[in-house]
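Hello,

Our lab assistant flagged a job as stuck in the queue for most of the afternoon. It eventually completed. Since we weren't sure the result was trustworthy after the delay, we are filing this so someone can double-check. Below is the sequence as submitted and the structure that was eventually returned. Let us know if re-running is recommended.
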Amino acid sequence: MSAPVAPDGTVLIVGASLAGLRAAEEMRHEGHIGPLIVLGEEIHAPYDRPPLSKQVLSGKWDVDRIHHHVPDVHDALGIEFRLGRRASKLDTAGRTVACDDGSEINYDGLVVATGAATRSLPGTEGMANVWMLRTLDDCLGIRADLAAAGDAPRLVVIGAGFIGSEVAATCQGTGARVTLLESYHTPLARVLGDKMGQVCADLHLSNGMDLRTSITIDHLEADPGGSDPVTVVLDDGTRIPADAVVVGIGVSPSVGWLEGSGLEIDNGVRCDGSLFAADGVVAAGDVANWTRPSSGRPTRVEHWTNAAEGGAHSARNLLAGSAEAVPYDPVPFFWSDQYSTKIQMIGLPNADDEVVIVSGSAEEGKLIALYRSGDLLGGVITFSQAAKLMGYRPLLAAGASFDEALAHARS
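-- returned structure --
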């Protein structure tokens, strides 16, 4: 059991991105008057990450536009931001967090919101002109490399997941010559299933993308300052020269600093259905692997809305204590903007679920499709049909049958 945090107690939030900031805001909205410290590894004030692969990468938005930190709002809340410092160790018994600068922070309540880190391609660590897009500095670095190459720079994107697909689409829209490489036979099939993955593949191909699937990377070669700054070499000997490479092969929860803390680490920080990981400790966002009440299964979600909703929910439960905590069971939602198409999805279907298109078609570039998980509605995906998506949200929240969802689609 975890006792409520006293109104004047010190709350430490490790992670200064969306989940951490929303947790801090909610603490104040709930009336917490004690010290509120947000510890962040980056030197930048909290900012929004989704535009990094789209509007900021393309240069359409200035950096100032993505900052969450609004001085008139957040300074009035009395939040102490300690930026440019990384948490290195957690002592749950002593309720302290050690930082990489040698300092220690005592807490009465702790929110773990350290997110996830991008996976690197082995052998490319520190290689010039090779990037993984997670931070603002990564985004600006990619932009700089492409700009330095002049007109029609060559970009290779490794991984056709959501981030890789968005980067590829965005950069092609700015005039870059983009090659998109995917190890699987269809983009996003592991997440969306083969049928909707093929729709995503067709979207790339209809927009002129050089999409290559079922490929294996052998290695990358660097020649900084040369005519081909980096070359991607495939296992069949194919060589693809580039001015920049972006690796988008997924992320891993940022939990290294929690080794030896006593928290259970398993694909993130294991939490109960109310986001408690230990006495006085909750987790939120990409790093939280919580037992979802509606399914009873461990669940970790890497989407923007989960970070925002989970951050606020974890804060309320931490203040209330575990006896009064409210279970966390949202209907997951995410979106992806590629070319002129907005892809949106609610629910957490399995990739092998049956998929039924109930409106539109892939050929039209607009569709609504339902996922059948057993006899239940598992999820809904739309391509350029945003206005119709949320009508299915109450059905998912209520655990509706697939037949009920079909009836809704026909009404």
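-- support follow-up --
The delay was a queue issue, not a problem with the job. The result is valid. The mean pLDDT is 95. The two ends are 47 Å apart (CA to CA).
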